[in-house]
Amino acid sequence: MSSTILISGAGIAGLSAALALSRAGVWVKVVERENALVSEGAGVQLGPNVTRILRAWGLGSGLRDKGFFPKFLCAHDARDGRVLGQSDLAQALQHYGAPHVCIHRADLQALLWQGLQGQGQWHWGHTLQTVHPADTHVMVRSASGQAWQGDGLVVADGIGSKLRQAVSGDGPATPTGHVALRALLPMTEVPRQWRTTNVHVWMGERFHLVHYPVRDGQWLNLVLVIHRRDSRETDHWSWLGEGLWAQQAVSDSCAAVCDLIGAVAQWRYWVLADRAPMRSATDMAVGRIAMIGDAAHPMRPYFAQGAGMAIEDAAALQWAWQHRGDQGVDLAWRAMADSRWRRVAQVQAQSRRNGLVFHSTGWLRWGRNAALQTLGSRLMNPAWLYGGGPRPVDGGGGVHDGPVTGR
Known about the structure:
The protein has about 400 residues and is an alpha/beta fold. The chain has 13 helices and 19 strands. The protein has helices at about 10-25, 50-55, 60-65, 90-95, 105-115, 160-170, 245-250, 255-260, 295, 305-325, 330-360, 360-380, 385, and strands at about 5-10, 25-30, 45, 70-75, 85-90, 100-105, 120-125, 130-135, 140, 145-150, 150-155, 175-185, 200-205, 205-215, 220-225, 240, 265-275, 285, 290.
């Protein structure tokens, strides 16, 4: 008889975990607080470290249909508009065996959901509040008192996870003092010179702007991160924000940035929070309970790896179950955590460093520009990231050909 694993959350982390474990022969029960898949959100970038996993899960054709494949990543100084460096994203397939893809978050969730059809049980509209581990099983309860039981649990319900607090007891994630504003523009409303096939990053003083096409190039996804403290909760997806915030943040920038920001009438925004880089495997696994994605390691968005690390976590669960599952859930989860925490900590730390670099002023800004102009392609194309992580074998069950790397 196959094992049953509970999964809290049906976002990118939860859907990925459900798909990965189902492909490893596990029966999953997924409990989600919303009544259906959440379609709000905007674009996400998926590097080759992530798309190689999705292709091994049989989602390659869906990525081709729903994703956008940018040609270059271009880094600019937002003050004067100079191109400081660029990376050839179109070469990702040749260099790393998988492409770089920009995709709308809802389209990514739909792809994962399609891969899961007929697999597992799905319980919608239940907010999980407590977890009760035992020697032979794990039980979770919702706010209404309903309970579910399984051989193990994967906590994948985001940055505000109540179950994470019950397991770790380390308090909520820490607000960074930054707010992310997101918008989607029909490409017909975008200033003509920015209807490109590239990813652009504009680095300003105390802000940065990223934009790239999604949905077959018909929409432009914009993300503006500014310094602004806000007391709102961090686990809600977004709120409506006035365009005045954005215009004030970029007021000293070049005309191109001001024109792009001026084209957006209204933004959706959310408060950014994170946790310190992981320090041990127990940050991801305690007995029969595993934690993945933002529930385990929320990170700043300056490395475009939040969704990617959640998908890597899921692939690591799959590998661990296929290689350690017969030894017990706790040993499988520990193997997953041992394979993951160092790599995730490195990504968390790099995300923090990138924030300082992107938003720098004075001499640090001058040094950043000089480094990018000299070593731009190397700095913007981290081989340790794109070439590392879980190594699935294409097709079939997507099993791994060796331990999940921690580098």
